Amino acid sequence: MEKFKKSFLLLGLLGIMLILFAACSGDETSGNSNNDANAGDTEGKDGELSGEVEFMTISLFPTFEEYLNGLKEDFEKLHPDVTVTINDVPYDQVEQYVLTAASSGDLPDVMNLNTEFVKKIGAMGGLVNMDEAAADVKDTFFEGLWKTGGVNGTVYALPWYTTTSGLIYNPEILKEAGFDSPPTTFDEAWEMSKEIYEKTGARGEYVQGEMHLLFPKNGIPILNEDNTAAAFNTPEAVELWTKLKEYHEQGLFELDVMLDQVSMAELYASEKVAWWATGPQLFRQVKDLSPEVYEKSMGAAALQGTAGKQHANPMNIAVAANSESKDAAVAFAKFVTNAENQLEFGKLASVLPPVKEAVNNEFFDQGKDSEDATTRGRYFAAQSLADAENMSPQVENVSQVIEAIQEAFQQVILNDVDPADALAKAEQKVNSVLE
């Protein structure tokens, strides 16, 4: 499981890596947000804020350097007595950088943090309580995404950019199996998979990584309401894992993707699967691997579980609790995440803004009837934000919780462990982690 631990450390940084892969060029490359009404600054008139603000970002230079410098310059124009310095840290160094700074009490004033770091540092008392400091802008964000930066009942960060899933599918494989449209639910997907596998030899639905997300997507809570104990050991979870075990025995999927032996992009590009559920910003991987397959592909909405929810994992903007320029830092955090700036960054970086006003823009609406898989997938992904939430447990040791669930499911498939026994063992392990 060492490989899994290492991969999870980078899971929260996935949004950054996706951006660097999928970033597109465009005419709008700087932050031209001069609307102070959107800045969320409640400290007074322009110019009353003062101080020096260090803004730490993660692997956004040089790709988005012009945009970030534009944000800095626009904010400094609004608040002439504030100086913003941007410090971009490579993603492979950020864990050590942040944890060292936290232990020494010298965190940057404003930080671009993944969700796991927010939980760790928030639990340590190192971050500003945004339920209080940003109460005036709380309702501008989608409710489910606002809670992303929460730990032990308090939100410690503002959601910045995010991704959620769409579906890229191969109409030719579907047609060969007798279908004229992709599935809309997981149950429908598995039923179609049987026909697709029998008639074409390709597979349909596939169990990927992040097994824990299938629980909340199907109405099974991972933890109890106060996050003190496991809550996933239920008859519904036993039924879910029993079905998945049967699907595997029927040959409908292999564990190669979950075990990092092959990527879904490779399987889809080689027409070994009929669809791939992932963030639309990754659809372009298919084009790189097989332009011919990409050209005949279409985009659709992500599959729905019984709960009707989608998972989103925003990157976040947090403020250090001991910042010497706390008022200015909070105002800058609100400015970076306001609707205008979020929309501009979404266009530039092929990501989604977790702000209601930004999503309700023609930029996203235009993809509804597009023949391009990525553009159409982006439309459906944007629409799903209203029902999206970060489904990872709101606890400091979230990685250990997820690892326990992942290991248990692998035992069901690889070693023929009874699903009920595997869930019971995972429950014990999670409860031990939470003690």
TrEMBL record:
The keyword Transport applies. The keyword Transport applies. This is ABC transporter substrate-binding protein. Belongs to the bacterial solute-binding protein 1 family. PROSITE patterns: PROKAR_LIPOPROTEIN. Residues 1-22 form the signal peptide. InterPro entries: SBP. Keywords: Signal, Transport. CDD domains: PBP2_TMBP_like.
